[in-house]
Write a structure and sequence with these properties.
Radius of gyration: 22 Å
Helix content: 40-55%
Order of helices and strands: HH
Largest sheet: none
Number of strands: 0
Oligomer: single chain
Length: 78
């Protein structure tokens, strides 16, 4: 086996592994997208602070009260 063949084999194995890993990530995001949106909504709404014992903190003024934490504003980044 020549040096060029060895390098091509190593690159092929690494790229195949990366492609498989990315395919698993894409499949996971496609299947579990709704759960991710729900979890981010809970995080943005800071609903865990409302459970007993309630923790009062100034951070609650930043809580998003929109469903699933999706807030629309007039400002856009685009």
């Amino acid at each position: 086996m020549t040096q060029l063949t060895s390098l091509l084999l190593i690159k092929g194995v690494l790229l195949s592994g990366l492609a498989l890993w990315l395919a698993v990530i894409v499949l996971n995001n496609a299947v579990a997208f709704r759960n991710g949106v729900f979890s981010i909504g809970l995080l943005m709404g800071m609903q865990l602070f409302d459970q007993e014992p309630a923790i009062r903190t100034p951070l609650l003024s930043r809580a998003s009260r929109m469903p699933y934490g999706i807030a629309r504003s007039s400002a856009s980044f685009w």
